[in-house]
Design brief:
With 731 residues, the chain is an alpha+beta fold. The chain is built from 13 helices and 38 strands. Bound molecules: alpha-D-galactopyranose (GLA).
Length: 731
């Protein structure tokens, strides 16, 4: 709900459990007054303290006002701060004016309440009907330069989510340049002892968690790589320093963007905290001609006073229901088998067919043909860009081969890496200038490939046509959209020197344009994004592809950490997870097939091995896994997710559960990570149940209260990586 008190110029946003408030002060500055647990009908501006802080100046117009020494943009909480205004903290906006100055004096101009939520032109964003979401638009204006900023706040009341973004408009006469245009700025004038949680990683080890007390100065989590990256995820949490899964105030910030980004938290001289998030300014400079506007990507903000678990569930719900789209957004996704770890590049049509044939007998529903089916592609050195079938490897061609797979009762999916080009490819030979690199320089290679210049419309058009013609040629029902390197040498032949700072963002816009066109032209295809695993697992990509291959590391032990970290922001329905062969190809570890299944089925389940090489006993286990996954599909994919342990705190076990919306049924998953002889008993406390209800667990009756206070004892087994699943059903 959005409340606008015109007289007081007070704007209050309420969700089920959250209040966010701002107020225009007597000088026209838009001050932030509150963000946190719900407080009804109160003007929170009384909590703003006007205190003297040396070396923090005030605007000229206050020169004769009493108390002016206590009024400074450098210390007051603001909704959208600007560089050069006397606020020395991190700005939301830095404009270079036509005359080269950086002044930008934004004052309140007008507001509007919109039922529903306007789309963001060319950018991914949450969506919802006018029953679900309302939007407040506040216009700020610098009367001298004509620069205007429209701040958008969309309130998803039932989901406890508020989204923010800004549109910067050049209403002046001359050209200006944006040096920094953040999506949002949130100031905490009453800042508790915050911890900051960020998510870092690397290839084969994505979404590790770092939690540390906030310190003075700036703490940055960002990417310069042209993509969001596994090195840093565009998501962070500020929480009470004693917040846990089940208690404490927690604030989440999730950027819906797939390019270079910046998340920054700054604790200032007065212990106040500012959060800014948006496009990475380091590689960004955007020219705005008179009348032009620039739209920043959206940030999904959420708050929970009930700990990290609820914060995550808020994100799971909004992403599942109001961000992902398409046919498979809410319908059952097929259990797939992918040939990559079974064959790598080295396969024949016959071999792939045999994998499919065998897998179909086990209940697996789709074959995904990975890298190597096109152009001249026997290894990573060539072929990218040549999206036509390699008949040496696939003599039947895509259509006939797809039919053969369909005749087995299976769907067929195909791998692409649309944004890349190999030097040894027909496409490169025809268009060497389509590569993203500086004229006169050779540029950086990554996995022997260049990045295609997606900032160019002609290139995006070409890719649309060439990929569409493959997708039209057969009954392809799934696409794996890979991207196996990141951007360097961001220079395009089509822009003048002074506009090269636009390339990184234009690349992302080109990528989104291509994805939008392909996903709407082929609505029946399930898209899964991938970037050497989870190197671009972000909310932006999920708008086009409802699932992402979470990591090229398919080892069950490693996945316990990767999927744990990913679960802080993304629901299991978005996390690609496969059972692979043992010894595991990335770590050499051997873990039981049952455990590999339990871990993988806490994601979009599939297999990545050659079932022909398995024993009959192993095949029986796979059959059972497939049945189990189908049985619990709704609970796993649409239920609420609870983390029941922290793998960073104990090496003994990891546990998590899925709970149905009506809390009548749960599936508890437990992996004994390490066996210890004569070990103390572990009781795993469940969460979210109805306290007074009776639940049946392994044939015995327990109250919801006792299961949550005392927990379930899973026993102690000999051997590492032993998994168990227990069903909990209300009597
Ligand atoms: C990336 C993907 C893998 C596989 C290979 C193919 O590494 O993450 O799953 O598709 O590319 O080259």
């Amino acid at each position: 709900m959005i409340l606008a008190d015109i007289e007081k110029k007070l704007f209050t946003l309420h969700t089920k459990n959250i209040t966010y408030q701002m107020k225009v002060d007597e000088y026209g500055f838009l001050l932030h007054t509150y963000y946190g647990a719900k407080i009804e009908n109160e003007d929170m501006s009384k909590f703003i303290q006007y205190l003297w802080r040396g070396f923090s100046g005030h605007p000229y117009e206050m020169k004769n006002v009493e108390g002016n020494f206590n009024w400074s943009l450098d210390t007051l909480p603001q909704e959208y701060s600007t560089y050069g205004s006397g606020d020395y903290r991190s700005p939301a906006l830095h404009v270079i004016n036509t005359d080269g100055s950086s002044d930008c004096d934004l004052r309140y101009n007008r507001y509007e309440i919109i039922e529903g939520k306007p789309a963001l032109k060319g950018l991914p964003a949450t969506y919802g009907s006018s029953d679900e979401v309302q939007t407040l638009k506040i216009e700020l204006l610098d009367k001298i330069s004509g620069i205007g900023v429209d701040l958008y706040y969309s309130v998803f009341e039932q989901r406890d989510i508020i989204t923010r973004n800004a549109i910067i408009k050049n209403g002046g006469k001359g050209k200006v340049w944006l040096e920094r245009a953040m999506s949002m700025c949130v100031d905490y004038n009453i800042a508790p002892n915050f911890d900051l949680m960020t998510f870092y990683g690397r290839q084969l080890g994505e979404k590790f968690i770092e939690r540390a007390p906030l310190r003075h100065g700036k703490t940055v989590a960002d990417s310069f790589r042209g993509s969001s990256s596994s090195q840093r995820t565009p998501f962070m949490i500020l929480c009470d320093n004693n917040a846990s899964e089940t208690q404490g105030d927690c604030y989440g910030f999730c950027l819906v963007y797939s390019g270079s980004f910046l998340s920054e938290v700054e604790q200032d001289q007065a212990d106040q905290v500012r959060v800014t998030m948006g496009i990475q300014p380091e590689s960004f400079r955007w020219e705005l001609n008179s009348g032009d506007e620039f739209c920043t990507p959206e940030v999904m903000m959420s708050f929970s006073s009930e700990g990290l678990g609820q914060l995550s569930r808020n994100y799971h719900n909004i992403i599942h229901h109001n961000l992902t789209r398409g046919k498979y957004h809410l319908s059952r996704r097929p259990i797939l088998i992918n040939n990559w770890e079974a064959t790598y590049f080295n396969f024949t049509e016959e071999q792939i067919y045999k994998i499919a044939e065998d897998a179909s007998k086990l209940g697996i529903e789709m074959l995904v043909l990975d890298d190597g089916w096109f152009g001249k592609r026997d290894d990573a050195r060539s072929g990218l860009g040549d999206w036509f079938v390699n008949t040496g490897k696939l003599p039947s061609g895509i259509n006939k081969f797809c039919q053969k797979i369909n005749d087995l009762g299976m769907k067929f999916g195909l791998w692409f890496e649309p944004e890349m080009i190999s030097e040894d490819s027909d496409l490169f030979r025809a268009h060497p200038d389509w590569v993203l690199r500086t004229a006169g320089r050779q540029g950086m290679l990554g996995r022997c490939q260049f990045v295609i210049d997606m900032s160019r419309k002609d290139v995006v058009d070409y890719l649309y046509d060439s990929i569409s013609s493959v997708l039209k040629s057969a009954n392809i029902e799934y696409v794996k959209w890979d991207a196996n390197r990141q951007i360097a040498n961001a220079w395009t032949a089509l822009l003048p020197a002074e506009r090269q700072g636009e390339v990184m963002h234009r690349y992302v816009l080109g990528l989104y344009d291509l994805l939008e066109r392909l996903t709407s032209s082929f609505p029946n295809i399930l898209f899964e994004s991938c970037s050497g695993g989870g190197n671009r697992f972000d909310a932006g990509m999920l708008y086009y592809a409802p699932q992402t291959w979470a990591s090229d590391n398919s080892d069950a032990f490693a996945r316990l950490f990767i999927q744990y970290g990913t679960s802080f922001m993304f629901p299991v329905s978005t996390m690609g997870a496969h059972v692979s062969a043992c010894p595991n190809h990335q770590t050499g570890r051997i873990s039981p097939l049952e455990t590999r299944g339990v871990v993988a089925m806490s994601g979009t389940f599939g297999y990545e091995l050659d079932t022909n090489l398995m024993t009959d006993e192993e095949k029986e286990i796979i059959k059972k896994q497939v049945e189990t996954y189908k049985k619990y599909y709704d609970l796993i994919n649409y239920g609420d997710y609870y983390r029941l342990s922290d793998p960073y705190k104990t090496d003994r076990y990891v546990a998590w559960m899925f709970l149905s919306e009506d809390k009548s049924k749960a599936l508890v998953n437990y992996v004994q990570v390490r066996a210890y002889a004569n070990a103390p008993a572990i009781y795993v406390k469940l969460q979210g149940l109805k306290e007074d209800s009776i639940y049946i667990v392994n044939g015995k009756e327990y109250s919801g209260r006792s299961l949550m206070k005392c927990g379930i004892y899973f026993g102690s087994e000999n051997g590492d990586m032993i998994a168990k699943q227990i069903e909990v059903v209300e009597k």
